[in-house]
Amino acid sequence: MPVAQDWRVFTVPPIVGPQPENGDDSPEASLEIPTDWLMPWLDLEAVRQAQREDTIANITGEYLRLAGVELVVERRWLREAYWRQIKQAITRGYIYKSTAVQITLRGERREHERRRSSGLTKAS
Fold first, then answer.
1. I need a surface site. Which of 66, 93, 113, 117 has the fewest CB within 10 A?
2. Mean pLDDT per 10-residue run, the chain (124 residues)?
3. Rounded to the nearest 5°, which phi and psi values hold at 105?
4. Quick check: helix, strand or coil at residue 13?
5. Domain residue ranges of the chain, discontinuous segments joined by +
């Protein structure tokens, strides 16, 4: 006589990796451009269209603030006198690519991320 088998249905939880915190270890780049540096016609929507979908962009009376994994700044957004000073507006990250008309910023360098995730530390 065949034995009835007990089939149990189970679910596999989704695989979720560690999420970056909004603290100092965040891999995001950020930028604060004084509004005095900006062209008077600049529209926030034009800035947002040049960014990745996950970039945060806002403008106040004092600054244009951008934060995200990768940020784009176009030369046409700035008054000519301030284009060469754009490095001073970077609050986090580094210039990944620079052309005559645009710069691209990124958060932490990948080598730093690999070193940190592999558990290696500097000898003191």
1. 117
2. 58 47 66 96 94 94 95 96 94 95 86 50 50
3. -105, 150
4. coil
5. 29-114
